[in-house]
């Protein structure tokens, strides 16, 4: 049904009376309609179309074919043109007219309103009475009309207003939440700002305290320097006092010996009383086992008596001056560095390490003394629990010192053939040991990265030197004794001032390990045997490093001749190479 733009006045008045509300826009009706929202009713009449009246459009058959026997060029062209025309017609777009919105009918509006308000009984009464009037013909649909546009617009505005209110409510909630978050963030910001200020204040306070401590420490440096000098002075006095004490002890010992000899001359011998053995045991036959045991006991007794009769050696108190001091002053010849390989001596089948002409250190945990004329071993010192790496002679010839893998060093008395002192203090293998020239001072180098200075008379450690970062393989004195050289497992060689016990310089010729270092007779040239087979020569005056290359494998030991004209080196290939 087409929508009518107008509505009879009587119909509207009847509608108003039925609903109990006025028709004025400013009255209660507008408020009620605005509160409930807008409704649209569209009256549509559906008619059943007859199939006989409908015109069907013929769809052309694309798959046309020309029957056999009727092939004609004109007909073929006509069929192609018709097909092209049909294709153009199908490709054209059909534009449908837009459907206009139909206003909502009055009865639909009222039904929707009652349903929305939940007034079901009123709805039933309205529908029964309304359709009864329609059937009786009292009321016609075309006379009722449609809902005016004002109501529809008011309903739309009301719905939009409701949606806006909902959005406003959500926005208020979001704004409140954002306000709370903002307040929380401001509080956190204030807290962090205050914490930052406190941290800055503490930092400034610590900086001021640090400055004060530096000033305080700087004020102590002169005192520490003075105390250090006093300490060195006391150490020197202690050494002098020890020497004087040793002299006094020697004099007392000499007087005691004189008194003993004087007393022996006036004493009488007491008679010796023996107890007669059992006759049965004397007459009993002796087997081979008992005989061997008796001979072993007697031999052991003889050795014990010999050792008991041997007296311990005394460390010398009046040491002769170091002859190298005057030798170094007289030797003003320039140092030699242009060594060339002169000869290769193949004397051994195994690697050449280090060994002395009279004392040898061995991996069987022993130290042996040899008679070079007879070529026999005259003494064996046993006491180490692991391999012995190095040994050295005291200048007096009465003592031998050895260093071992068992972290200890020992001082052996050659005359009494016993261990006088065991030096404890290192925490790892002791790789080298050497006596200070013409003195009772020992120097040891260990795998615990330290050097130690010992008093051989007491067996106590006097000083330890720190500075190496890797295991120390060897350490030695200069002929004058004023400087120490040491090398470690990464090829770093260090020079130390022995008088001040402080490091002087470090020379890195690594990464191959330095196995041994030795000075020439003048003390100006230092030679190092390296793990890569190179012999490094360091000029202590200029700082230049010279290299001697000739070993086919690792170089273990290096030593200068007394005049410094020849250099000898031993390697793991079993050869001794002579450089001149």
Attribute tags:
10 helices; elongated; four-stranded antiparallel β-sheet; alpha+beta; 580 residues
Can you characterise this structure?
This is Sperm-associated antigen 16 protein isoform X3. Residues 154-188 form a coiled coil. The protein has 580 residues and is α+β, with helices and mostly antiparallel strands. It is 39% helix and 23% strand. It is built from 10 helices and 23 strands. The strands form 6 sheets. It has a 4-stranded antiparallel beta sheet, with no helix packed on it. A 4-stranded antiparallel beta sheet has the order 5-6-7-8, with no helix packed on it. A 4-stranded antiparallel beta sheet has the order 9-10-11-12, with no helix packed on it. Strand 18 (525-530) and strand 19 (534-539) form a beta hairpin. Helix 2 (28-36) crosses helix 7. The longest helix has 118 residues, at 149-266. The N and C termini lie far apart (133 Å). Residues 1-40, 93-100 and 268-284 have low confidence and may be disordered.
Give a brief outline of the structure.
This protein has 580 residues and is α+β, with helices and mostly antiparallel strands.
């Amino acid at each position: 049904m087409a929508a009518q733009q107008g509505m009879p006045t009587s119909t509207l008045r009847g509608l108003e009376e039925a609903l109990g509300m006025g028709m004025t826009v400013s009255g209660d009706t507008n408020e009620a309609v605005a509160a409930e929202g807008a409704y649209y009713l569209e009256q549509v009449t559906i008619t059943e179309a007859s199939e006989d009246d409908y015109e069907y459009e013929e769809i052309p058959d694309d798959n046309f074919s020309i029957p056999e026997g009727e092939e004609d060029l004109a007909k073929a062209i006509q069929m192609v043109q018709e097909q092209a025309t049909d294709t153009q017609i199908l490709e054209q777009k059909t534009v449908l007219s837009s459907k206009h919105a139909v206003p909502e009918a009055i009865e639909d509006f009222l039904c929707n309103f009652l349903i929305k308000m939940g007034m079901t009984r009123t709805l039933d009464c309205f529908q029964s009475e309304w359709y009864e009037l329609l059937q009786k013909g009292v009321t016609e649909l075309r006379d009722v009309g449609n809902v005016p546009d004002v109501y529809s617009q008011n309903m739309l505005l009301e719905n939009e207003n409701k949606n806006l209110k909902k959005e406003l409510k959500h926005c208020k909630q979001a704004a409140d939440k954002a306000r709370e978050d903002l307040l929380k963030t401001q509080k956190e910001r204030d807290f962090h700002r205050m914490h930052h200020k406190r941290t800055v204040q503490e930092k400034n306070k610590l900086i001021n305290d640090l400055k004060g401590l530096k000033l305080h420490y700087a004020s102590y440096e002169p005192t520490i320097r003075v105390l250090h000098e006093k300490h060195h002075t006391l150490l020197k006095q202690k050494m002098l006092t020890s020497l004087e004490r040793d002299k006094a002890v020697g004099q007392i010992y000499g007087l005691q010996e004189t008194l003993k000899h004087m007393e022996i001359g006036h004493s009488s011998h007491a008679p010796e009383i023996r107890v007669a053995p059992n006759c049965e045991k004397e007459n009993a036959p002796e087997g081979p086992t008992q005989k061997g045991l008796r001979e072993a006991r007697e031999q052991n007794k003889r050795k014990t008596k010999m050792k008991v009769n041997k007296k311990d050696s005394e460390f010398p108190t009046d040491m002769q001056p170091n002859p190298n001091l005057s030798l170094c002053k007289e030797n003003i010849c320039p140092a030699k560095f242009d060594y060339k390989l002169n000869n290769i001596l193949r004397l051994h089948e195994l690697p050449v390490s280090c060994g002395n002409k009279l004392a040898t250190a061995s991996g069987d945990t022993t130290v042996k003394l040899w008679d070079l004329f007879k070529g026999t071993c005259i003494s064996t010192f046993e006491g180490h629990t692991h391999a012995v790496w190095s040994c050295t002679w005291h200048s007096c010839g009465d003592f031998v010192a050895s260093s071992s893998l068992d972290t200890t060093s020992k001082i052996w008395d050659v005359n009494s053939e016993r261990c006088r002192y065991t030096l404890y203090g290192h925490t790892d293998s002791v790789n080298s040991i050497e006596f200070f020239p013409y003195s009772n001072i020992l120097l040891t180098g260990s795998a615990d990265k330290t050097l130690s200075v010992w008093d051989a008379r007491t067996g106590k450690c006097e000083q330890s030197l720190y500075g190496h970062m890797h295991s120390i393989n060897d350490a030695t004195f200069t002929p004058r004794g004023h400087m120490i050289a040491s090398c470690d497992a990464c090829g770093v060689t260090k020079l130390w001032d022995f008088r001040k016990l402080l490091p002087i310089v470090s020379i890195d010729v690594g990464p191959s390990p330095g196995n041994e270092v030795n000075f020439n007779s003048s003390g100006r040239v230092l030679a190092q045997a390296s793990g890569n087979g190179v012999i490094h020569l360091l000029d202590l005056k200029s700082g230049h490093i010279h290299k001697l290359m000739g070993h086919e494998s690792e170089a273990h030991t290096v030593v200068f001749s007394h005049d410094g004209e020849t250099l000898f080196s031993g390697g793991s290939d079993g050869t001794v190479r002579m450089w001149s």
